[in-house]
C-alpha cells in the first residue's frame, strides 16, 4: 500500500513538470519573431521609422523616400563607403579603384564591380537590382541615369560647407541603417581629434597645401578649395590667402612656392593615389623648395595620397587625416 502511494505521488509530480514545460514552449512559440535579420537589427539598434525621406548633402538633388531599410546597396563614393564600413553596414557593389589601406577589403570580388569613381557601369549596376545608390561629385553627371536604376542619393561633402555636410552625410547613413548611437560616438572621436590638431596648427605657423601630379597645384583657404578644410576646420593659417579658390587649385612653379614661403608645406601625391609610379620626394625636395622655411625646419609633410585625394567625408578617413597631421608635426 505504501508503494502504491509513492507511485501515485511520483506520477503526479511528472504530470506537473510536463505541463510546465509545455506551457513554456507555447509561450516561446507565441513570441517568436518572423522578421528578417536586417529588420531585427533595425528594431534593436534604432528608433528609425519608415517610410524615411532622405535629403542629399548639397542642393539640386531630389529628396528620396525609402519604404524600408535598403538591403542591396551600391556605393560610388569612398567617403560614404568609409562611413558605412565604420557603422558595420554591408554593401553589394562599389566603385573599384586604388582603395586606401583601410578600405582595401572592397577590392575583393565579394563586392560587385560598379565601375570606377568616374565611370559607372550602368548595366552591371542594374543587374545588381540595388535598393539604393549613393554618389558624390565625381558621378554627379550620371545622376539622372543612375536614378533610373534605383533611388540615388548625393552624399558627397560640399567644400563650401565642409564640416556640416560631412555630418549630414554621416547622419544619412546612421538614420537609414539604424546606427545613430554608434555614429554619434564616432563623430565625437573626430571632433576631439580636431580640437587637438588645432593646437598643433597654432604651434606650427602658416601652411600651404599642394597636390603633386608631375606638376604642382596649390590650394588656398577659400570655400571652393578642395583642401580648404585644412584651414577652416583643422585651424592652420594660410600661407597665401590669394590663391585661386577651386577644386583643381592653382598651378604653381617651385619659384612661386618659394615666394609664398610656407612654414609647413603639405604635399598630397595624386600619382600614388591613382596607383601610378611616383617620384614625389625627388621632385619636391629640389634646390628651390629646399630654401623654404618649411624645408629648412623639416616640415615638408607628405600626406597619404589615396586617403586625401580619393576619400572625403568618411568617419575613419577624417579621423585618419587628423591623426596623420598630428603624428607628422609632433
From TrEMBL:
One of its GO terms (biological process) is iron coordination entity transport. It comes from the Bacteria. GO terms for cellular component: outer membrane-bounded periplasmic space; plasma membrane. It is found in: Cell membrane. Keywords: Signal, Transport. Transmembrane segments: none annotated. Residues 1-19 form the signal peptide. InterPro entries: ABC_transptr_periplasmic_BD, Bact_iron-sidero_bind, FatB. It holds the Pfam family Peripla_BP_2. Residues 26-49 are annotated as: Disordered. Residues 30-49 have a biased composition (Low complexity). It is a lipid-anchor. Belongs to the bacterial solute-binding protein 8 family. This is Ferrichrome ABC transporter substrate-binding protein. It comes from Lysinibacillus antri. The lineage of its organism: Bacteria, Bacillati, Bacillota, Bacilli, Bacillales.
Amino acid at each position: 500500500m505504501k508503494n502504491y502511494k509513492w507511485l501515485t505521488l511520483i506520477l503526479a509530480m511528472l504530470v506537473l513538470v510536463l505541463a510546465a514545460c509545455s506551457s513554456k514552449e507555447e509561450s516561446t512559440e507565441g513570441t517568436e519573431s518572423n522578421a528578417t535579420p536586417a529588420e531585427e537589427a533595425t528594431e534593436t539598434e534604432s528608433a528609425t521609422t519608415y517610410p524615411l525621406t532622405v535629403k542629399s548633402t548639397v542642393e539640386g538633388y531630389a529628396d528620396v523616400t525609402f519604404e524600408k531599410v535598403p538591403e542591396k546597396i551600391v556605393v560610388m563614393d569612398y567617403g560614404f563607403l568609409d562611413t558605412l564600413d565604420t557603422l558595420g553596414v554591408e554593401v553589394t557593389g562599389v566603385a573599384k579603384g586604388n582603395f586606401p589601406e583601410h578600405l582595401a577589403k572592397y577590392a575583393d570580388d565579394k563586392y560587385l564591380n560598379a565601375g570606377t569613381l568616374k565611370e559607372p557601369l550602368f548595366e552591371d549596376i542594374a543587374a545588381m537590382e540595388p535598393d539604393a545608390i549613393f554618389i558624390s561629385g565625381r558621378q554627379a553627371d550620371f545622376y539622372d541615369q543612375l536614378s533610373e536604376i534605383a533611388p540615388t542619393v548625393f552624399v558627397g561633402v560640399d567644400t563650401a560647407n565642409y564640416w556640416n555636410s560631412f555630418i549630414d552625410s554621416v547622419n544619412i547613413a546612421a538614420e537609414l541603417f539604424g546606427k545613430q548611437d554608434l555614429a554619434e560616438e564616432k563623430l565625437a572621436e573626430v571632433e576631439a581629434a580636431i580640437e587637438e590638431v588645432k593646437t598643433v596648427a597654432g604651434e606650427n605657423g602658416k601652411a600651404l597645401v599642394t597636390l603633386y601630379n608631375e606638376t604642382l597645384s596649390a590650394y588656398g583657404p577659400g570655400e571652393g578649395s578642395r583642401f580648404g578644410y585644412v584651414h577652416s576646420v583643422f585651424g592652420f593659417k594660410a600661407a597665401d590667402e590669394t590663391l585661386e579658390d577651386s577644386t583643381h587649385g592653382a598651378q604653381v612653379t617651385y619659384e612661386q612656392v618659394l615666394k609664398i614661403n610656407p612654414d609647413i608645406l603639405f604635399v598630397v601625391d595624386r600619382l600614388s593615389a591613382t596607383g601610378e609610379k611616383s617620384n614625389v620626394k625627388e621632385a619636391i625636395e629640389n634646390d628651390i623648395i629646399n630654401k623654404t622655411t618649411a624645408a629648412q625646419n623639416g616640415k615638408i609633410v607628405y600626406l597619404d595620397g589615396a586617403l586625401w585625394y580619393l576619400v572625403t567625408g568618411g568617419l575613419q578617413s577624417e579621423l585618419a587625416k587628423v591623426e596623420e597631421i598630428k603624428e607628422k608635426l609632433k
